[in-house]
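Please check this protein record:
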Amino acid sequence: MSDTIESATKKEFEHKWVILAAVMLGTFMTPLDGSIVNTVLPSITTFFNADISIAQWVPTVYLLTISCLILLYGRLGDMLGYKRIFLYGLAAFTVTSMLCGFSQSMWMLIAFRALQGLAAGMVMAVGLAIVTAAFPPTERGRAIGIYAISIAVALGLGPTLGGIIAEHLSWRYVFFINIPIGIAALVWGSRVIPQGIRNPGQRLDWYGALTVLAFLLSLLLYANRGEDWGWLSPVSLSLLAIALLSGALFIWIERRSAQPMLNLALFRNRVFSFASLSALLSFMSLYAVVFLTPFYLMFVLHYSVLTVGLIMAASPIVTLFVAPLSGAVSDRIGTRGLAFFGMCICTLGLLFMSGLDASANSFDVAWRIAICGLGMGMFQSPNNSAIMGSVPVFHRGIASGILAAMRNVGMVLGIAVAGAVLYNVAPIAASGQPGSFTSAEIQEFLSGLHWAYISGAVITGAAALTTLASVSWRRQA
């Protein structure tokens, strides 16, 4: 078995850069879709005459459905091979993008976004595992840093592209753009991505899969809808009870399963557990910026969708240049210092964001967002490299799935926390029509925005502390 793994690995090393490029193209769509939709979300809200609290479901349900099944997809990748899961996800994502573009109501769009999230989870769960398997350990940080370029380019291009499309065509085309990209990625990936190693005799832990689905779904629903339903309402408390019971049952099942869906022994590894927690916290804080800032730019500063897109591109553009460099440097000096200072810089950026007011201009917003992007770019590649380098080869699929789950659960919780802070300080933001804000309501909104960004800074500061506890100063073997 070890000879088979070694032979397959050497073969992948020979075509590592082609494999990386193919995975990057396929992975490109999921962050592109997220960044485009967040930019044009105010336009979609106005088009369907919906409230912000309803519009929040468009990004949230996408992240929710990704998060709920991503561990299952990672386990299936370990069992069946990463290529199959990756390509099935690409095909399904392309089809569901077309359905989103044809939506006739806000709730129809939300339903199709849920299906789109299920498909995106397949791509995101195993993409990093394919890249990790294709490169030797001494080049892992560099490869992951370059892999991050596809995400950074998608995040950077998304706001601008979304603004151009919404300005000259329609918000519907932000979904249609995925169709040609998806087809190209599917054809190329089917030709160059290796089949990977299949583990014969493996069986899926269905009880574990169902209980973790119940846990994540109920927990994230409670986090996102608790504000509207009331944190202590019967529905909210029922969701919380289901989350606690299913979470406890999941742990009990996994400890006793001969072939668990999630090997809990992975979390005994200090590097893996704390670096995963850092990833969760970092994306919670990032999505406080991603979700709230477009509303500030459009409804307080009265910028066009295109201008909003250009400003929001500041963060991912900086990440585009920093992430590969950070990953390459981490191969030489270790990951801890880079990841820690990245989170410190991101904390500083969020504190600067909290100082925005109604008199700010586009440059005032852009340089603050760029600082956040600098911190995230410095943090992500070393942290991801630490996680993937800390697990055995035969657990890379589930490790990739866990990392993707942490990222997406962090996004969902980040939207929930930012929204909860905003709605408590500025209730008008939860139920009012933002396009008709009065001067007093704008000041109330700005106050809520201030404290939401402060909350994000606190979360990022916590991520800096967990980073210190996670990774060895020495280069990962």
Notes: The chain has two domains: 8-190+261-468, 205-259.
